[in-house]
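ok here's the first one, seq then struct tokens
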Amino acid sequence: MGIIVGSIIALGAMGLTLIFGVLGIGDFAHGDKMGWGMFLAFFVVSSEGANLGFAGGRFGSLSFGWGLVVGLLVAMVGVAALSVIMERLVYRRLRAAGGGFFIFAIASLGMSIMLRAAIQLIWGPSNFRYTPGIHPAVEILGGIRVKPDQFFIVGVTVLAAILLYWLLYRTRFGKAMRATSDNPALAEASGIDTDRIRTGTWIVGGILAALAGVMLGLQAEVRFDAGFRLLLPLFAAMILGGIGNPWGALIGGLTVGIAQEVSTQWISTGLKPGIPFVIVIAVLLLRPRGMFGQSR
């Protein structure tokens, strides 16, 4: 279970640390973007989506079919567009006004509250599921029982990490992103369109947030504050892996997820959400740059 939860945290943390590394913004709205991705996919697989002809069928032993695939695509496009709108209407104006790190942090916190309230206004406070009913698990080595959907979640995380590596290290756009992250002024003087890079970064971060949100809804319940509840583990994974390092965020996310689940052997389940606090404090005290962070 820790690997499954860690995979979801890793997906969200990779997008969060990418935004921080390239743009220098601690995006407190990232969790609620995950929530929007979750509910956009739910719209497609729910009765509203069924009326549009999206729902139906299953893929083998998985609990979903083409409806959730279409929902996942809609979620990625929708959250990416939402991120770009926020950049154009809020963050770009703050940047032009000379806003610093804390101004952006407060602004993103306000956007987080607004996004979460909008979800609750549209879909209400009730909990939902993509596919109702009981979904049987299969037994693997050591008697561990895993649902087919959980294999899918891990596979999506691995594929996303591979594609992100390809984007950053095998494309011109990725090289421009890394140059902008290292030195924005020098990158702009070298002919790189940094505004385009910023927009692209928000798009990639939004896609990863949407992926994480849909995977979270597939693993647990679709609820309006689910993404917000995962915000602290996301930041813990980002700090643990090294701020600005997507691969560190991947390892950090898996570490945080496993630590949360293993901790229930010794502490009450209700205390499990406090584990990311402990991890963040320990990392800041022992290795402030994280496991894979580099000094500048």
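and now the second one, same deal
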Amino acid sequence: MKAKKEILIALLVILTIGLFYYGYGYLKGSNLFANGSTYYAIYGNVAGINNDDPVSVNGYRIGKIRSSTLIAEEDVVILELEISHGGLNIPEDSKAIIANTGLLGGKEIDIQMGSGDAYLQEGDTIVSGTEEDIFSSLSSSLEPFEKKALEAVVSIDSVMHLVQLVLNEQNRKNLQSTMQDAAESMETLNTTSKDLQQMIESESGKIKTIITNLTEVTENFSAISDSLKDIKFNETIERVNNSLDGANSILEKINKGEGTMGKLVNNDSLYMHLNAASKNLDLLLIDFKENPKRYVHFSVFGKKDKSKK
């Protein structure tokens, strides 16, 4: 009877220890009765992730980090991922990303499932990656504004330096002199404007006369333009063209030697006759000069010259 009680007590202790171990493993993410798989991921920086941190897919926990090992020679950390979700196939092009779980710095391994047809086998290594934390993202987002703020500060510093240069004593005197010159120029311009106004008022009668004359000239030009519209320019141009055609026809006939003008222009016989006549006339004048008595008979007593002609 006593041995039976001891056996019952031993069984109760073993059952209690088993339940405690199962409960502790369940709380840590392990399922003793699940048909799980083990995979590995290699990281250059684990970003503060620890053992027993969850492994999830789309926010659903499928396992945990069983262990982590530092390989000092290669300066990397190998994480052993325990996937307790039975029947889950992970494509080979999937990635194990170290992701943030909240603002307080919690970490997990987020499995981003790939789309390939080939799947990882037990003990394979999955492609790894790291997600930027909120502070890194915030820093990256604020970096352009930081640069702009720095540029603005530099610009303000440059402006203040220029203001200091402008506001020194010499520049203040120059500025005062410039403002005085500008005031004098405005006063001169005001005086000129008044003189111009007085001149316009005094010459308003002449200006009106000029405007009236311009109006009359415009009306006359309008009347002339109306008259010009009545002229038949096309008929006039056509007559001029006809006259030019006629003149071209006459010149063409002359060039061909047709008619009296054509013969005179193109035949050199007239030139030859005129040349011969000129030579004969020249000979006649020479003979007349040498022997004038042959051509002119003059006697005071009325006698006749009986010399042989």
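notes on #2: The first strand starts at residue 37 and ends at 43. Residues 1-33 form one domain.
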